[in-house]
Design brief:
Blueprint: H1 9-16, H2 29-36, H3 39-44, H4 47-53, E1 61-62, E2 70-71, H5 121-124, E3 132-139, E4 149-156, H6 161-164, H7 170-174, H8 183-192, E5 194-202, E6 209-211, E7 219-221
Antiparallel strand pairs: 1-2, 3-4, 4-5, 5-6, 5-7
């Protein structure tokens, strides 16, 4: 992407998200899987396949759809949505998506109300971090397989200073301006990395997930403190 002086830094950042960064001749993960586990190996039952299928909750059935997929005893049926890159969160017809928690929402009891204009590193360490990556669910009570109550363990992979602090970051630098990144800003970003643990519960009345406030399990783990 080339620099355009008529477009804001945040807009340029959003546009960069639509630009592929991997070399066009690089294999996809599907190519690698298909090469490693071709049909003959699947039918023979290679150690790799055995290890993969042993993680399933029930005995898997091998199916052939041109890519040798693994079926784990369950299936979903929905209409495929078309590829898109816009501000909307697209879901298949008949399904919906709700926001459970966002960057800046409170995690720890007594966390200060989120204000991006006055945010400090100490504030951020009580609030939900930035950019989810891995998300894991642990049933409560511990050792159970309860699907309606548990802990959500979230990894905060990285920060985008261009969006967190308008006018800062690498796109500002590309526009020949001082990035203005200071130690306090760096510490806020470090505090926004790491992980969050939140307790969640499904409402029996409407089947919607909710956060359990003031949970004794709630925790923030950050690059600043850990």
């Amino acid at each position: 992407m080339t620099y355009d002086p008529h477009i804001s830094a945040s807009a340029q950042y959003e546009e960069s998200e639509n630009t592929p960064v991997n070399p066009t001749d690089s294999p996809t993960i599907g190519d690698i899987i298909n090469k490693r586990f071709n049909r003959r190996n699947v039918l023979r039952g290679t150690p790799g396949v055995t290890a993969m299928t042993s993680l399933a909750a029930s005995p898997p059935a091998l199916v052939s759809n041109g890519n040798e997929a693994f079926a784990h005893g369950f299936s979903v049926s929905f209409s495929e949505i078309s590829h898109s890159a816009d501000e909307k969160h697209h879901v298949a017809e008949g399904y919906d998506a709700d926001i459970l928690i966002r960057w800046g929402d409170p995690v720890l009891p007594g966390a200060r109300k989120f204000d991006p204009a006055t945010l400090t590193a100490d504030d951020q360490e009580g609030l939900f971090g930035y950019n989810n990556d891995f998300v894991g669910f642990v049933s409560l009570p511990f050792g159970s397989s309860n699907p309606n109550h548990g802990l959500l363990c979230v990894n905060h992979e990285y920060t985008d200073e261009e969006l967190m602090f308008p006018g800062l970051g690498k796109y500002a630098k590309n526009m020949l301006r001082d990035t203005k990144v200071t130690k306090p800003i760096t510490e806020i970003e470090m505090a926004a990395h790491g992980g969050s643990i939140i307790e969640i519960k499904r409402d029996s009345a409407n089947s919607k997930w909710q956060i359990v406030d003031n949970s004794r399990y709630a925790r923030r783990i950050s690059a600043r403190q850990t």
